[in-house]
Write a structure and sequence with these properties.
Two copies of one chain form a homodimer. By secondary structure, chain A is an alpha/beta fold. The first copy, chain A, has helices at residues 6-10, 15-22, 43-57, 71-85, 99-111, 126-133, 151-160, 182-192, 250-264, 269-281, 284-309, 335-344, 375-388; strands at 29-30, 94-97, 117-122, 138-145, 148-149, 163-168, 198-202, 226-231, 243-246, 315-316, 324-328, 347-348, 350-351, 365-369. Chains A, B: Belongs to the class-I pyridoxal-phosphate-dependent aminotransferase family.
Chain lengths: 392, 392
């Protein structure tokens, strides 16, 4: 008899992690990971900020600190929601987390009893599936359409089940790159206000919109049970593991703080001081513009190459921001088989499987990341994939 | 009806955290927290290491990284177990965690089903009680004697229950400051090898032994199901949140890695590089000697003042390392009442309650921390407490 918990036996090791192990070799063109381009790391500026906070604050950047996070950083995050999204957010509505991966863990911890209904986009972010699986929910996948969730299907599920949580990535979704339309956001807000589920809007990519204004959050149309996740991972550095949860629900926040304390006491306080100092001394939006310009070029390179090399029977999304393109082979084909052949040609991507709650079925879909390769490398990788796709 | 999970509704907010909020004022003498003296933070050296790793490694210190941790740091930790404890530990036996608080969360996650028996020292570390409560175990407290656990009581519990985990802090225990004798360690090893429970030896303070050689781990006598926790929090910096789990159990390790990945992907990689660079360029044992000298002076100041000012009816431990003294008022008295009176005299400590699995009973015990006040301040605080104790 196993000694291990039921929750861990149910939780899959990450498929992507296993893939990343295989493709560590230098000569493989990888569209598999979700790594930001290092151009997004303001290295020298962070180095100066680190020196400055040590000189300026001394011991307190190395000491134990408060679970909620560094107060000035919480205030900065709140102000950004006010300035960029016209949302009524204060510092007390912000809990600093160890990356937004931890935010997933904490939300699962404080809300999910085994068997509770948890609605999630299909396909959906595999890190969320993994984190929530740990709390043994009954996953209710909701199909993702081009303009956001299928609201008819969502309503059926909300009617039938006491859904605790609805997890979404409304901007440049992982894995599809799709974005919810403003109209759909309004409709979702109206629908959800008739039920008791908390909506999570996990938003690592929203700031990376290639053109035009950022979209309003679903919750900004007046949603009562709202939780928004944010992170510096895609705009400053992922290695520091800093994200946050934003919610005005005081009871939920109080439970999240207790869960966070039990999980790791607090997030790296030195990193919080350093990042705050960086934000005070640099214009974040200019830095983000720089990242967007680069990602737009990389995305264009991928989409142009796909147009040139992929057969018409292979469809794909055309993201307007973020880091991913989502493709689909003809119905009935298996992207996992394509993956095996692609590896022989030294090109890697992620087959669609781990983005479905039931990851055992063969699926024709696959995810391509464009942020971590140069345009000419992207073109060559897509060319090789296109060659393999000639059979479809 | 509440929407929140059963686990979070059972989990207490930290008592100490609530106390720390009350005593933020400058004029309060606090023996309440468990903060290391800032002398243990090698600030300038860490600053140099940070500059160096940014210059030397560039982007990779800011990028996503592996769940297991920075390989050279894992190797350093393994080598330290080999060199200082003659234990057969390799890098693959080490998982870097976000402080050892996360190690508690991960162990609970991968082992504990609701209702599973979990044995723990009584009194025991409140952070462990809080972290494990989240997984709804049936706590089986085992009395802590002057030389370690009461093995007769432990054996009764092991006989009766299928204990999944036994949690201990064998060196300068939190809250008591007590240390398991070498003889008791051998006996525990023999006893535990007859059962299937994993032993956790959580060891934040073991290196802070004022005099003589460090004690061997219980597991070093040949324990099969062994997990040792370590941390840099008390010897370098707690603010960076870096600890580790050491186990040679491959199946357990594989589950821990999956749980860690779901929890926060990986620990701050920049901090791992910086701390490793610090370790490569400085003699850690010399730095630890410096901390020990200081803590010994602070401990002496507290014990001398207690001898002078406390009535004979109040007993206390005489720690030979670590950060805490554990006191006891006469049987039947409540340390919580003393706490209220002490706050009026502007002295804070932690009443014993949160260190018991059932924290609702009045207890005569209390914890004093000596590492975060100057000797003359310690003396004044103990003098005030002694005055309040004249009624016993």
């Amino acid at each position: 008899m196993t000694q291990f918990s039921e929750r861990i036996l149910k939780t899959p090791a990450s498929f992507i992690r296993e893939i990343l192990k295989v493709i560590q070799k230098d000569d493989i063109i990888s569209f598999a990971g979700g790594l930001p381009n290092p151009v997004s790391f303001p290295k020298e500026a962070l180095k100066q900020s680190m020196e400055r906070v040590i000189d300026q604050y001394g011991d307190e950047v190395f000491q134990y600190s408060s679970t909620e996070g560094y107060q000035p950083l919480r205030e900065w995050v709140a102000k950004r929601y006010r300035d960029e999204y016209q949302m009524d957010v204060q510092a007390e509505d912000i809990l600093i987390t160890t990356g937004s991966q931890q935010a997933l863990d904490l939300m699962g911890k404080v809300l999910i009893n085994p068997g509770d209904a948890l609605a999630i986009e299909e396909p959906g972010y595999l890190g969320a599936i993994q984190a929530f699986t740990m709390f043994e929910p009954d996953f209710c996948p909701v199909p993702l359409l081009d303009d956001g969730l299928d609201l008819d299907k969502l309503e059926l599920i909300l009617e039938k089940r006491n859904v605790k949580l609805l997890y979404t990535v409304p901007n440049f979704q992982n894995p599809t790159g799709l974005t919810y339309s403003v109209e759909k956001r309004k409709q979702m807000c109206e629908l959800l206000n008739r039920y008791s589920a908390y909506l999570i809007e996990d938003d690592p990519y929203g700031q990376l919109k290639f053109e035009g204004e950022v979209f309003p959050y679903i919750s900004s149309f007046g949603l009562k049970k709202s939780v928004v996740f944010g992170t510096i991972s895609k705009i400053i550095t992922p290695g520091m593991r800093l994200g946050w949860i934003c919610t005005k629900d005081r009871e939920l926040m109080s439970h999240l703080v207790t869960a966070k304390q039990a999980a790791d006491l607090h997030s790296n306080i030195f990193a919080q001081y350093a990042v705050y100092d960086y934000l005070m001394n640099h214009e974040l939006n200019e830095h983000i513009d720089h990242i967007k310009d680069l990602y737009k070029k990389q995305s264009d390179a991928m989409l142009q190459a796909m147009k040139e090399f992929f057969p018409d029977s292979v469809s794909y999304t055309m993201p307007k921001g973020g880091m991913f393109v989502w493709g689909s082979l003809p119905e009935g084909e298996s992207s996992l088989k394509l993956f095996d052949r692609a590896m022989e040609e030294k090109v890697a991507f992620v087959p669609g499987n781990p983005f479905y709650v039931d990851d055992t079925k063969a699926v024709p879909t696959f995810r391509l990341n464009y942020t971590n390769s140069e345009p000419e490398v992207i073109r060559e990788g897509i060319r090789r994939l296109g060659k393999l796709m000639e059979i479809y």
